[in-house]
Write a structure and sequence with these properties.
- The complex is a heterodimer of chains A (about 110) and B (about 110).
- Chain A has about 110 residues and is mostly beta strands.
- Helix content of chain A is about 0%, strand content about 55%.
- Chain A is built from no helices and 11 strands.
- Chain B has strands spanning about 5, 10-15, 20-25, 30-35, 45-50, 55, 65, 75-80, 85-95, 100, 105-110.
- In chain B, strands 2, 4, 5, 6, 9, 10 and 11 form a 7-stranded mixed beta sheet that branches. Chain B has a 4-stranded antiparallel beta sheet with strand order 1-3-8-7, with no helix packed on it.
- By secondary structure, chain B is mainly β.
- Classes of the chains: A mainly beta (about 110), B mainly beta (about 110).
- At the A-B interface, strand 4, strand 5 and strand 9 of A face strand 5, strand 9 and strand 10 of B.
Chain lengths: ~110, ~110
């Protein structure tokens, strides 16, 4: 079993819809949770960074962490074609190593 | 502009050849990382370095080597022992707050 599980999709939604992405994990020691966006043939860019359980909002993006269920989510409101990308979840303990999900490919149709 | 640069963007390797991928950062970060990304797979850690002149193997270090002689630089050598080197290679550095920032990547292809 992988340490971090992420549905690879692909996920296709119409413009303006809410995109819902999620990851589950098995290591209860994870404390820091991140979401990255990666456009084709580019390096990942950090979207959201959260610590422990709770919600964090940044513009159209909301990250949720539920440590009791070992489950994290990313919601994208009012999705745009420019949101079409692969989204990677990542998490870590209080150390130097990150564990990544496989990524979910999202297409927002105009 | 602060950031991470990787070169070259594309690299071709002949059988039996060693090739070196460059990674430079001007973010003043101590920790640097090399990942390999294959289609449909997540990022897999090759090597990481927390400080100059020190580095540790990641999950898939076999067939790769690194050096960390300067804080700004963390080159990766793909040796002839790596039998399946075709992949997208990503370099990253980590801030004191624990966030990782990535370079634009190098795509390695085998001739």
């Amino acid at each position: 079993q992988k340490e971090v599980e992420q549905d690879p999709g692909p996920l296709s939604v119409p413009e303006g819809a809410i995109v819902s992405l999620n990851c589950t994990y098995s290591n209860s020691a994870f404390q820091y949770f991140m979401w990255y966006r990666q456009y084709s043939r580019k390096g990942p860019e950090l979207l959201m960074y959260t610590y422990s359980s709770g919600n964090k909002e940044d513009g159209r993006f909301t990250a949720q962490v539920d440590k009791s269920s070992k489950y994290i989510s990313l919601f994208i409101r009012d999705s745009q074609p420019s949101d079409s990308a692969t989204y990677l979840c990542a998490m870590k303990e209080n150390d130097y190593k990150l564990s990544f999900g496989a990524g979910t490919t999202v297409t927002v149709r105009a | 502009d602060g950031g991470i640069t990787q070169s070259p963007k594309y690299l071709f390797r002949k059988e039996g050849q060693n090739v070196t991928l460059s990674c430079e950062q001007n973010l003043n970060h101590d920790a640097m990382y090399w990942y390999r990304q294959d289609p449909g797979q997540g990022l897999r850690l090759i090597y990481y370095s927390q400080i100059v002149n020190d580095f540790q193997k990641g999950d898939i270090a076999e067939g790769y080597s690194v050096s960390r002689e300067k804080k700004e630089s963390f080159p990766l050598t793909v040796t002839s022992a790596q039998k399946n080197p075709t992949a997208f290679y990503l370099c990253a550095s980590m801030s004191l707050q624990g966030t990782q920032y990535f370079g634009p990547g190098t795509r390695l292809l085998v001739l």
